[in-house]
Automatic annotation (TrEMBL), chain A:
It catalyses: L-threonyl-[protein] + FAD = FMN-L-threonyl-[protein] + AMP + H(+). This is FAD:protein FMN transferase. It comes from Catenovulum agarivorans DS-2. Magnesium. Can also use manganese. Its EC number is 2.7.1.180. Signal peptide: none annotated. The keyword Lipoprotein applies. Its cofactor is Mg(2+); Mn(2+). Gene3D superfamilies: ApbE-like domains (3.10.520.10). It is an enzyme of class 2 (transferase).
Automatic annotation (TrEMBL), chain B:
Keywords: Signal. This is DUF3570 domain-containing protein. Residues 1-29 form the signal peptide. It comes from Catenovulum agarivorans DS-2. It comes from the Bacteria.
Length: 299, 429
């Protein structure tokens, strides 16, 4: 049975229902531990609306959203709402906890770096000219407002999808308190709550190089997030430059794993750990070990 | 010791995540009401020159309606400092091997030997579910996990209560079973073996082999079964009384791997220090009685507990609290507690001649009296939250239960007192 509505469709399978739509440049899927069409339709509608809302609000490709407003503010104060304030506060905490490696102002460096698998490295001068616009410590924000220095930019791309996964999982828990829902946006995953019968959802983790589901995980609760440089790199003189940029130097992190998957309670938390792990480069595994989380690195 | 390059930020990140997700759903006025109740506290405990502890407690309770209550409590504490190792003080300096076998510590003449390597972080988690069962009964079950660097305890418990006599009388029974594993650094010492001291050996290898001879393994276990029967009775609208009988049975490794007993000669000079030895089982009976009386504004809570075990320790505890309202939103609670215990049959502050099959110089199982004086101030805030502060003084006085002190032992303090200050700050929301 396949149901199609505007933007999303769902179907009932043998033991669960699945919902599909595309958003945030990813295939988005929800598996729901129910066979009740009304509940599936409700969750599909809510999940789709919430995901699109977050995508529209925080994407840097949308012309008239709050991110665009902030990024084109030329040093002026911009009013923000509670949700933006909460995300900025979260980004601030990640910045502090990661020894300033996790920095949502580092997107400006993309002006110097084009990860097109070529050997076109920017010059140190080009990098340095970007670096003056990088640094979370230069951002001033309060409950209702933010002020960026001219030419600085915020990019929620590193946390937006994981945030959406966590929010959708939360919505599912609120509206389906007796059902387990697995939310999977292109490999960033969260389970709303464990299934009543205690059985696990089976999730394949893709090998970033072959694209094949390399490992099938049994997930009863919690979240998974993956960060990596699959297909985005530069190669020069035998050195591979990953697209993960160190905001302290403006240069790519060296010796980082190609992909990191972390298991935590919330997707956004797992995503931040994975990203921070990558930023630590060769020390990624040591860092994640210290976090006492389950993780998989592929090098 | 492994070099720790990265600290654990995951806890802070989890907290930030919860704030983010909770904050947003509140902001968007989700229909889910916030009916979790939180109780948080931070406590400092300090014995001058000895142990210091800082403890953080977060407990959360959620009522799912009709008295179906889930509660959880997380306790994190860190302990640092020094603890008496059981050896007698001497009129000259003494050297002891650390429990790990790595290194030594020296105790000055006249000082009570304290092992200064005492350092631990403990995490405890309690989960409990309670609910009514029919009109007059209640059932509950819980899980307790406690983990330290060298200690792991897992316990399951269940309870049942029956109201009768128009809910004026409640009979209850509760049982708990705990399995503990102890894996101290340096391993488990062989009971009654002599502490190896580096100075008595020709070289490091000889010492290491001598130290290894005093070890019997990496870890030991014990099991604890507790059962409590209770009866509470409403006497009148002002007066409530409660009686409990408790039985506790512990089996397994009950010695303290860090404690020794000194063997002394006629002049009181220590010839060596021997790892203590305790029986591998202990059963305890206890009786508890409590009265709560509600005056016009004051509430007086008074309790007495008598406990007796087959190690020969009998104890009496008298405790009293008075709740004194200062205004509609603030009250103070003075607290007095008096405790007295007799020594275990095998308690020996030191031994002369032959070692005993069971012996321990741990002051905690010797004869002692202790008292606590405290004051707690509680303030209800305008939004219904509650702030509290508690300050307590604790004094423990070990006593000689009839041992003569030969030679130089007459000149040193074999029963030093311990005092402590406790400060706690609590916030309930």
């Amino acid at each position: 049975m396949l149901q199609t509505q505007q933007g999303y469709h769902w179907q009932l399978k043998d033991e669960h229902a699945s919902i599909h739509f595309n958003a945030m440049a990813s295939p988005c899927e929800l598996l729901v531990d129910t066979l009740e069409p009304e509940l599936v339709e409700l969750l599909a509608k809510l999940a789709y609306a919430e995901t699109k809302r977050i995508e529209h609000k925080f994407s840097r490709y949308v012309a008239d959203n709050i991110v665009a407003k902030i990024n084109s503010s030329c040093g002026q104060v911009v009013e923000i709402d509670q949700e933006v304030f909460q995300l900025l506060t979260f980004a601030e905490q990640c910045y502090q906890l990661s020894e300033h490696l996790f920095d949502i102002t580092s997107g400006v460096l993309r002006k110097a770096w084009h990860f097109d698998c070529s050997d076109n490295l920017p010059s140190q001068q080009q990098v340095e000219s970007c670096m003056q616009y990088v640094g979370w410590d230069k951002v001033k924000f309060e409950h209702n407002s933010i002020r960026l220095q001219p030419d600085m930019q915020l990019d929620f791309g590193g946390i937006g999808k994981e945030y959406a996964v966590s929010r959708v999982a939360q919505l599912c828990l609120a509206h389906a308190p007796n059902n387990s829902v697995l939310v999977n946006f292109g490999g960033d995953i969260q389970v709303s709550q464990a299934k009543k019968n205690g059985q696990a959802w089976h999730v394949g983790i893709e090998d970033p190089i072959t694209g094949k589901a390399e490992q099938v995980l049994q997930l009863t609760s919690g979240a998974l997030a993956t960060s990596g440089d699959t297909n985005k790199y530069l190669l020069k003189d035998g050195v591979r430059y990953s697209h993960i940029l160190n905001p302290q130097t403006g240069w790519p992190v060296v010796n980082a794993p190609r992909s990191v998957t972390v298991l935590a309670s919330h997707c956004i938390q797992a995503g931040c750990l994975a990203t921070i792990g990558l930023l630590y480069g060769a020390d990624c595994e040591d860092f994640l070990q210290a976090q006492q989380v389950k993780f998989w690195c592929s090098r | 010791m492994q070099l720790i390059k990265f600290s654990n930020i995951n806890g802070a990140l989890a907290a930030a995540t919860c704030t983010l997700l909770a904050g947003v759903s509140n902001a968007q006025a989700d229909e889910k009401s916030n009916d979790w109740q939180f109780d948080t506290a931070i406590m400092y405990y300090g014995e001058p020159d000895r142990v210091q502890a800082v403890e953080g407690v977060v407990s959360a309770t959620k009522d799912f309606g009709d008295e179906h209550v889930f509660s959880t409590k997380l306790v994190l504490d860190t302990l640092t400092g020094a603890s008496a190792n059981g050896a007698v003080a001497q009129t000259s300096a003494q050297t002891f091997t650390r429990p790990s076998g790595n290194g030594e510590y020296t105790v000055e003449a006249g000082d009570t030997p304290l092992d200064d390597t005492f350092r631990d972080t403990r995490v405890q988690l309690n989960l409990a579910w309670n609910q009514p069962w029919g009109a007059n009964q209640k059932v509950g079950a819980g899980l307790h996990i406690s983990n330290e660097y060298d200690y792991l305890s897992v316990a399951l418990n269940a309870n049942y209560a029956l109201d009768f006599n128009r809910k004026n009388t409640t009979f209850s029974v509760a049982a708990s079973y705990a399995a503990d594993e102890y894996s101290p650094e340096g391993g488990i010492p062989l009971a009654l073996s002599k502490m190896a001291i580096r100075g008595d050996f020709a070289n490091d290898d000889a010492f290491n082999s001598g130290f290894d001879d005093t070890r019997i393994g990496e870890s030991e276990n014990k099991d604890t079964l507790d059962v409590i029967f209770g009866l509470s009775q409403v006497i009148n609208r002002r007066w409530l009384v409660q009686f409990n009988y408790g039985y506790s049975q512990v089996d397994g490794y009950l010695s303290d791997p860090f404690k020794v007993v000194s063997l002394v000669d006629d002049t009181g000079s220590a010839l060596g220090h021997y790892y203590e030895s305790r029986p591998d089982s202990r059963s305890k009976h206890s009786i508890f009685a409590q009265s709560k009386y509600h005056f016009d504004s004051l509430v007086w809570d008074m309790s007495y507990r008598l406990a007796s075990d087959d190690w020969g320790i009998d104890s009496h505890t008298l405790e009293s609290r008075l709740y004194i309202p200062l205004s509609d939103s603030a009250w103070i609670t003075p607290h007095v507690r008096y405790y007295q215990q007799s020594a275990a049959d095998f308690y020996r502050p030191f031994v002369q001649g032959d070692l005993a099959e069971y012996m321990s110089a741990d002051y905690r199982i010797g004869q002692m009296t202790a008292y606590t004086l405290g004051l707690k101030y509680t303030q209800k805030l305008s939004d219904g939250d509650e702030l509290s502060m508690r300050l307590e003084y604790y004094q423990q006085t070990p006593e000689n239960s009839g041992f003569n002190s030969p030679g130089q032992l007459a000149d040193v303090d074999l029963y030093p007192s311990v005092s402590a200050v406790i400060f706690q700050l609590g916030y309930k929301f």
